[in-house]
Amino acid sequence: MKLNVFLLAVFFVVLTSFAAHAANHNETEEDDLNVESVTILASTSMAVPITEISKNYSRLNNIDINTVYDASGELVNKIKEGDPADIIITPSKFYIDQMKEGGLLDPASIKIIAANNLSIVAAKEFKINKSDDIKNILEQIHNKTLMVIANPEDTSLGSYTKQSLEKLDLWKIFEGRVVPAPTATKVVDFVTKGQSAGIVYTTDAILYASQLQLLGQIPPSVHEPVNYYAAIVIGANMDKSKKFMDYLNTAPAKNIFTAHGFLLK
Q1: How far apart are the C-alpha atoms of 97 and 110, rounded to whole Å?
Q2: Do residues 202 and 261 make contact, with C-beta atoms less than 8 angstroms apart?
Q3: What's the DSSP call for residue 131?
Q4: Which of 16, 29, 91, 200 is the right S-S partner for 156, CB 3.0 to 4.6 Å?
């Protein structure tokens, strides 16, 4: 009899502990589901400043900031396919206009948050005669190797690169003699690993200065302005997205952009 009472007591304690654990587990799951978050889709060239800004904002406001980095064309595809997205940041006015016309963006939210330029770079080992003449530098590269450029079909950098080469009357000689890269950061990767040369965003030339030699700056007059547009994707999370967009205009955020070589408009 005493043994039965003892076993019943043990069973009661175990059952109570299990119930308490289950309740705590359910509360934790509910808390996880209730955590506020914002998902940002941004161009790869913006990865460093946006990651830093997101961490600061998350810490200050107790909110999760999820970031996805890719080429502009791929980001647009993700949004069209229904992937999670609250804000898009891209240096492509073409894609911004396309999404606005398609009813995917809040038109009133669209704003320019930073700007960039283009630079000609090469691997440290690449041999070339330095020159102040941009056309001369590009012609030397053409005569030595296949130049690496971002894919003009679905990257903003590639589009600006093609515009520049066309304006300089060099696209015809380079077309068919380039190595297309899928993203801006992959241009740097291909240049360094292939000991070649290419055209990158000036901010990437700064970021990877230890791996690259700067050969020259592409004149801004030969391509459309490289402006980074930020916009809110229409959906259920627009209020939280607007707060993050407002933060992008604050001094701490702007200081991060300029610290990484971006220009402010």
Answers
A1: 10
A2: yes
A3: -
A4: 91
> Hey, what amino acid is at 253?
A
Q: What domains sit in the chain, N to C, each tagged with a CATH number?
A: 36-115+225-259 (3.40.190.10), 117-222 (3.40.190.10)
Alpha helices in the chain (DSSP H): 2-34, 47-61, 72-80, 93-101, 134-144, 156-167, 171-174, 184-193, 202-207, 238-247, 251-259
Between CA 92 and CA 57 the distance in angstroms is: 25
Q: What is the CA radius of gyration of the chain?
A: 25
Q: List b or e across 206-219, with b for residues whose CB sees 16 or more CB atoms inside 10 angstroms.
A: ebbeeebbebbebe
The angle that helices 47-61 and 238-247 make with each other, rounded to 10 degrees, is: 110
- Return d(Cα 162, Cα 144) in angstroms, integer: 20
Helix axes 184-193, 156-167, angle to 10 degrees: 70
Strand (E) or helix (H) holding 231: strand 226-232
What is the model's pLDDT at position 35?
57
Distance (Å, rounded) from C-alpha 44 to C-alpha 116?
13
Report residues of the chain scoring pLDDT below 50. 1-33
Question: Looking at residue 34, what is its pLDDT?
Answer: 53
